[in-house]
Design goal:
The complex is a heterodimer of chains A (about 800) and B (about 220). Chain A is about 50% helix and about 20% strand. Chain A is α+β, with helices and mostly antiparallel strands and about 800 residues long. In chain A, the strands form 4 sheets. In chain A, strands 14, 17, 18, 19, 20, 21 and 22 form a 7-stranded mixed sheet that branches. A 6-stranded mixed beta barrel of chain A has the order 3-4-9-6-8-7. Chain A has a 4-stranded antiparallel sheet with strand order 13-23-12-24. The longest helix of chain A has about 40 residues. Chain B has a single domain, classed as P-loop containing nucleotide triphosphate hydrolases (Rossmann fold). Chain B contains 7 helices and 10 strands. In chain B, the strands form 2 sheets. A 6-stranded mixed sheet of chain B has the order 6-7-8-3-9-10. A 4-stranded antiparallel sheet of chain B has the order 2-1-4-5, with helices on one face. Classes of the chains: A alpha+beta (about 800), B alpha/beta (about 220). At the A-B interface, helix 1, helix 10 and helix 13 of A face helix 2 and helix 3 of B.
Amino acid sequence: MNQLYFKIAVRYLLKNKLYSFLNITGLAVGIASFVLIMVYVNYEKSYDRFEGSDQVHRIYMDYLKGESFEPGDAMTYNASGPTLKNQFPEVLDYVRFYYFEKVTFALGDKIIEQPTGSMADDSYFNIFNYELINGNKSSALKEPNSIVLTESLKDKLFGSEDPINKPLEMIWDGDPVTLRVTGVMQDVPKNSHFRNNFLVSYSTENTWDVFPERHKKLNWNMNNFYTYLKVDKSANIASLRQKMMDADIEEDEEERHNIEALHDIHLLSDKPYEVTENGSATRIKFLTAIAFIILVLSWLNYINLSTTKAMERAKEIGVRKVSGAQRGQLIFQSLIETIVLNVLAVLIAFGLALLLLPIYNAFTGAEINLNIIDFMQLMPMIGIVLLGMVLAGLYPAIVLSNYSPTKALKGKIRASANGLNLRKGLIITQFLATIILVIGTIVVTKQIKHLQEQPAGVNLNQIVSIQGSVVSSKKDSLLHNDFLVLEQELAKLPFVEKVTNTKTFPGASFDNLSTSIGMSLPGGIEDDKVFYYSYYTQHDYFELLNIEFVVGKTFVDSPLNTSDNVVVNETFLKAFGVNDPSSVVNKKIKFWGHEWLVTGVIKDYHHFGLKKPILPMVIRHGESNDNILLKLDAKASSTAGFASAIKQIEKTWKRMFPSSTFDYTFLDSKFEAQYAQDKQFGTAFSVFTGLAVFIACLGLFGLTSYTCAQRRKEIGIRKVNGASVFKILALLNIDFVKWVGIAFVIAVPTGWYFMNNWLQNFPIKTTINWWVFFLAGITTLLVALLTVSWQSFTAANGNPVEVLRDE
Amino acid sequence: MLLQLNNIFKWVNSGGQRIFLLKDINLEVEEGEFISVMGPSGSGKSTLLNVIGMLDGFDEGEYHFLDESVHNLKEKHRSNLYKEYIGFVFQSYHLLDELTVKENLEMPLLYKKYKGAERKAMVADMLDRFNIVGKKDLFPTQLSGGQQQLVGVARALIANPKLILADEPTGNLNSQQSEEIMALFKKLNEEDGVTIIQVTHSEKNAAYGSRIVNLLDGRKV
């Protein structure tokens, strides 16, 4: 019997091409969007999973701000881990990472710059249970000067050779050390918040003279370590946290240790000194909501189209009932049709999703492929799709099976009031979702534009940073000298306007700053609570970056390029309660046990991008071999000009450091990269809103084509009786205007609520003006009218005689 | 006796008034009869046919079909009863456009407990009997009106009903096609002993039957 059901389902789809097309396209686009979003959401939620990862927690610092503690740095002290393990039996083990942002490896002639690795305790593999392909998990990181490489780094350095026990020179901060390869580990998956490309044994600290003595002793002075704990399975984390806070292991009232699950880091943690820019739980929530909205929209569409269409099938139902079909059998048959249609849509959707995956990956920066997609994880998703499919199919099925056979056969089935109300409800819901999404899109776009238009307080155009993590076997002072020579050489290039060197620059990571407390200011201000951030640079830095001074001027240039001069920002003064900037200029301030002369106060600029608040800053006068900043002139602004400029810079570099890689960054793109994720989110929001609107339009289009067909006779009679085309159009379209209106009234507060919520993630917020809602409403109305108008226009223009004749 | 209607009343309420569709109908039908129901438009012919066919209920009276009291039966029983014993033929054929001739014939069997092979045999037999084997894979729209009605009659007959109810079976056909269908009905009635009740406007068609029931304003006259 089933065979015939399938047959009729397929024939019906083929016969009603427009209807099938609208339905399948709507569902396919809906399901494909849902799948793509949810796969991404799952990917974002899949960070840092390995066997035993639920036992791993990171500790971080809370700092006292005013009366209460706030999450402070993601980094802790070298004493934090050992102390906690000693004091609390539920802490089974700890591992500390001393993080290298970038090092250089030298192996014979081969010189390779390699980002992100750590010095780690030998307990690493006990906690981060990743596979060690070659070597022994418990001993690989025991001996000083041991290094474990990831497989891909091993391939880069050693190729197919066996690296075990081979020596390898690593240079960090200009200081070389010879290490012995003791293991090769599996590459850390991309969905990890911490990607170590190599691990150096922690005990190397004791033999490597780059670390000063004070660094080697357990201390509560330098929090430069990421510390992870392995906690007993049965331990209660909340009570462990409480115990940690009560114990106050550091014995410092201003600070305390806190703990967070490894699983929570990627989505929930956004602290200073994070290893990398983490994801955002809010974004994930919003995306999930969008995914469901789109899916539900496509089902509503389906219900709408098929109940409308159901009337057309009344005769068939009548014949079947008269031939002895029971309700159950009719419902079953109708469900089969739903399933055929849905299966088609699902197949197209998955095809579409697979096809789009590479583009999608490039866009999201995620690394999703079929291997990584855990199908067990997808089961609930597939379940949702299937359940929705059946539910969406059930309603039209029940409507159909309820038709009375005698009425159905006489063609007397008219839309019941209930059915009409339901369809109105569905359409209003669709409009509602659409308007909310459009409001969302406008607000997100507006916010990102707002961020970009914010005066950053610096001009980062045409500025290139040359990174100085250079390779040289020369002694430090000579290397430093070379770097200064390079700076002078670069200054001679015709397209270089200005040159300076600096420890860091706007848009670079937190890692290059020092955080301190303890400050004495003129006028008897003594403070040991407020955190301030510090780096050092040259006197011409401010001019190069167009950072303006409120009062005073830059450091006094000195032959040594280093002095006791400092410059502070406005936020710094505000933080310490200084109201008159000029009151500190040319006065001494005291911190770090020294006196410093304030030569000027700069206007606030955004050092960490516009998402993060401006912090109190002290900028010292000092020479650095970390970065050379070059301001290029207008000649280098074209692509060709730029390429040749970079080539010449590289040539100069190679003359000075022939064996080292040349590495440069454009400051403006680096700065923008800090809110790249938000831009991505904005684009994703717009694209998926577009798709949602598209689906809603499909439904609307289908519905109008149907109502127009149904009302042909009515339109004919009205026209014969003198109604103008315009009047008919108004008659056909007024309902839609009403429905958009109702949806609009509900959408405004809802949309405001959600988007206001989202904006709370930013220190700088755009305003949600009245025109945002107005624009969203008008756009939706226009799109709706455009969708329905073509058909209502055709219907209104039809010759009434044609319609009335065949009655 | 095949069926018996005793004092059947059926009405609708409209604007506070009770409008009678059927008024005090008494009718006995023996097996093997061929009855024609006649009367002007709105006299209740189709309603009567629907009541007999159990597609419509009634408000008062008794209806006995074979040994069952239809007026006391639940919906489900009633539909089982007509499923087993009654076949319907319509003025506008009501074939399913998406199905071929063969599949249209098979369709009623799907709702009864027949196995696949049995169904095939019954369909083949019917195609053969009605001489439409050559049309079995065509869709209804590819057939003439007369051919469509032929399929309609074949479909009504396929499950071997005791009673065929035909509501103006020739209303959409030309005179030659009409005659063929009526001749077919007569043959079915006489040779196969199928009881037939037809609604018709045409005296000529009515003459094929053994008895005529005349209705006016819901009453038998």
